[in-house]
Amino acid sequence: MNKPLRILSIDGGGTRGLIPATILQCIELDTGKKPLDLFDLFIGTSTGGIISIGLFAGLQTGQLVDLYLNKAEEIFDDSWFDDVRDGFGKKLGADYSNTNLKKILKDLFADKTLGDVHNQHNTDLASSDFRKMLMIPSFDLNPTVKVGDEMKPTNFRATVFNSFLQRYKDDKLVDLALRTSAGPTYFPIYDRKYIDGGVALNHPAMAAVAFAINDNVFGTDDGETPDYCYPDGLKKGLGLKLSDLRVLSISCGTSNKNFVPPSDIKTGDWGEIQWVKYLPDLLTESNVQVSEYYVSQVLSKNTYKRLAPTFDDPDIKDLKPIFNKIIGLDEVKKPVLEGMQECARRYYTKHKDAILAFVNQE
Q: Where is this motif: GXSXG (predicted)?
């Protein structure tokens, strides 16, 4: 093998996606290289999926930063009419329509498909170098499996759209972005079956690592279409060794407040009323921590780096008035967005040497 597979993984987090977008912009400014020059495999969930799609489609990091700073209010526009129609907020319908988001995404990606952008980056099929690949997790509410000659419904499951596979080549980038970011209660279910990939893979590095080391092959009668990227064409993954990987994972920041205070637990005899307050954050945080445990266990510090800014970092204590509460996924206030951008810049500056050493290694 001539060089390691360089993977960029970006978490979900709503408008907090401004944080990884800003960090990537800082990396680009200091290296003089676009993310497409620094990474081979891009994977992102929800807002991280939108960033990953944008980078893979050739958008500038500055365009993505601008998306959060100047389009957040339009994306999370909750009109009084929508509230009345939905029964006053989230009671009977999603808090936001995806109409504005879809229009913005359409302006960015037009009608480009996953196959269009994949082929744009991978024209020389004879090359032995790694190709550019994109993976976008979503979650399927009504999946089906083939049983005999019939397709039958099966359990909920994550779906990872992968440019390595032929069967996803005609999927439009706009649709992929809306499938991965259809957060429950925030946006409607998309295509009548897909919701936010963060339900299962909010920290998607685990999925990228699994794909990279998978050396299994497609059967001859399983209905799968082999990949259309690599000359050997039958593998379900890249068949690499863990030592062949270099994974940079970026979170969307945290307030470090995803816990249950002992005073709230009391006897611990909880029912629906007690659990409902904590379940959304518990479900999201748990899959982040599971992915982090898995990836950090199987990869070494030389092959894996996690960037995870926190809003209670002493280095941003002067911004405490901005971060004195949990920052919602639908935060749109400009001072808070600019505070998150400053948080990302300071985090990058503090860890700049280590970050650049990691992304520049051979």
A: 44-48
Give the Cα separation of 159 and 294 in Å (integer): 19
To the nearest 10°, report the CA torsion of 335, 337, 342, 344: 160
> 334-360 and 61-75 are packed helices; what angle lies between their axes, rounded to 10 degrees?
150
Crossing angle of the two packed helices 47-56 and 173-180, in degrees rounded to 10: 160
Mean pLDDT in residue range 35-48 = 97
Query: Does 296 qualify as catalytic in the annotation?
Result: no
The verdict on whether 46 is a catalytic residue reads yes
Residue 216 CA to residue 200 CA, distance in Å, equals 23
Count the alpha carbons within 13 Å of 179 in the hemisphere toward its beta carbon: 23
CA 263/CA 274 separation, integer angstroms: 13
Active-site position among 9, 46, 181, 249? 46
Q: Give the H/E segment covering residue 353.
A: helix 334-360
User: CB of 58 within 8 A of CB of 36?
Assistant: yes
d(CA 331, CA 325): 11
Question: What is the mean predicted confidence (pLDDT) over 211-218?
Answer: 85
Architecture of the domain made up of 5-360: 3-Layer(aba) Sandwich (3.40)
Residues 329-350: pLDDT tens digits? 999 999 999 999 999 999 999 9
DSSP secondary structure letter of residue 190: B
**CB–CB of 106/96 below 8 Å?**
no
Beta strand extents in the chain (DSSP E only): 5-10, 41-44, 133-140, 144-147, 150-153, 157-162, 194-196, 245-250, 304-307
Q: Are 340 and 327 in contact (CB under 8 A)?
A: yes
pTM: 0.92
